[in-house]
Amino acid sequence: MDSATVLKLVEAELENEWDRVNAHGVDLPKCVLRPPMREVFHWRTPQDEPSEFRFWLVLIEPLVDDSGYGIFYDDAENLFGLATKLTDGTWLYLGHHGSFLESLESM
Length: 107
Known about the structure:
By secondary structure, this protein is of the alpha+beta class. The chain is built from 3 helices and 5 strands, in the order H-H-E-E-E-E-E-H.
């Protein structure tokens, strides 16, 4: 899978929904990206070492204090989900949420 294919998945889901606004005020035409591949970290418990996986970052909400939420696409699971950008620039996994629009509403 490549960046263009992932973007087409998002665009197909947003076909008539580009004006949708969520509770965070995300402006979809400004926030949807040609997705880069990123690493995200996941902790099962605070005592565990983080596990790491790669995902396609398809949306970044407007950043405040260099942190914010992003929607990712996991091509291994064929699911979208949420991550948050920490102040050190790493992405923290928050969970899979199903479709792009379900992830958007979960912010």
